[in-house]
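Hi D.,

Good news: the full-assembly prediction came through. Inputs first.
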Amino acid sequence: MRLDQRLIAGMIRPRTRVLDVGSGDGALLDYLFRNSGCDARGIEIDMKEVTRSVAHGLPVMHGDADHDLAHYPDNAFDYVVLQRTLQAVERPREVLRQMLRIGRYAIVSFPNFGHWRLRLQLLTSGRMPMTSVWSRPWYDTPNIHPCTILDFLTLCRDEGYGVQQWMAVDEDGERAPWRRSIRLANLFGEQALFLLRRKDGPRS
Amino acid sequence: MDNAIPATSLSHQSVTFAEGLPLDCGFHLAPVEVAYRTYGTLSPARDNAIVVCHALTGDQYVADPHPLTGKPGWWSRMVGPGLPIDTDRFFIICCNVLGGCMGTTGPRSLRTLPDGTQEPWGTDFPPITIRDMVRAQKLLVEHLGITRLLAVVGGSMGGMQVLEWAATYPECVFAALPIATSPFHSAQNIAFNEVSRQAIFADPQWHGGRYWECGEIPARGLAVARMMAHITYLSEAALTRKFGRRVRHEPGKGGAGGPGSLFGEMFEVESYLRHQGSTFVRRFDANSYLTITRAMDYFDLGAEHDGDMSHPFAGTRTRFCIVSFSSDWLFPTSQSRLLARALNRVAANVSFVEIESDKGHDAFLLDEPDFDRTIRGFLCGAAEHAGIA
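Then the structure:
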């Protein structure tokens, strides 16, 4: 399991209902079931990964964030997780709305387009930045909705989502030290991880 | 065409329920005999039972040789020691469906008339539904002393039964594995069934369904029905791969006249379908075919709920695993996805996999390694969640 998945698992209370949207190889689902006693289920777009997960006994269905969340009833889950995918969905704002409709909490991680290396590349070369995180050319990238940590916070404010917890994460998934200043995190964090609650959601 | 009357006197393992069954049509069918096979050993806690439901023309001989054809069981590559549905771990039950012709009460069974004489039900056999089939299976499962099934598994019409099991007896079904199936029978599939039935009706040897009186069977009509249906079980890619445009030269065979005549040569695919048709009539009863295809046509999970297919599953705790095949145009993935989303609407625990295959609907009976892994993994996961070591 990736290090940032451990951070996500740390945000999830034991014995809760979890939907992992983009569950990949199912590592987080497996961890949450075995270590936290969670009712953890997945949605995954890559059929090979779906087959692999189900063959490991994990409850995963083929689908994607844009089209399949709308079918779940309100409050079906305690947590809905979207890992490193928000920038690749068709309608990020709608996906977040659905996540916080069907779940009490949303856990969202995404690559931060405000990282200094991207800013510097654009400034110096005048071309779309390419890094190990943003590794595909503009015409070929699935990442159609990149955003910065500040952009994401603005959206959360506009939508009225409460930020229960946030952290910057480096590329390996290790928690980065920029926990006090959002501006520093936006400059130095390669990935961001947010725990959101809905407008009327409980503070805890 | 081989006009031999199928062996009605075969003895099958069965149990008779004198009290019978109330059917969806309002008729009380009694007695009801359920013919079945079991494989593996029921655990002392009686918690390792899996019901396998067969498709339209299947039967209870899942994993041992068919008593009429001598061929291996229809799912012998899936059910057995060490196989995905592992008889070393699980106790497998498979019944011949209600309305069938392999020992369970159906149109070929004898009924007692008011004057005390006996004759086969024939087309007077009451119309049955998929749910009636499941009710009959439930009688058997209770008779075997089992209160909760670890899983119910089936493909095609067997998948319809799986869904009815989960909808009708949710507390009895820990896990459900509907394969290559649909939450309702589509207009296209009803249309295919209707052509099959018309082929049988059109055979003069059908005699209005009372063919037993003349010692005949509507072999030609039933064979045509089977040939047409068989095309729907395959795919264009599978037909091309298996037969292409190859021609079989058989002097003196293939209809009118020799070389140079209109039907002097036979395409391989024609020969194959004829073989499928002629072997089928030896083992299957025409009136059963009519009864069972009609039951499929009536199948619609949303029918009693204003079309809401999720309603029958409200509050379900069953773990579902829906499997479809990419080249299946009889029960296409889109219908499985409708089912998956209906189950999502009630927040059911659903896995949903589409297996990449060019073998069409029949893929669930054939060698598909990803499919095998899916079945094995889902059942192992279900067993783990059910607390079975």
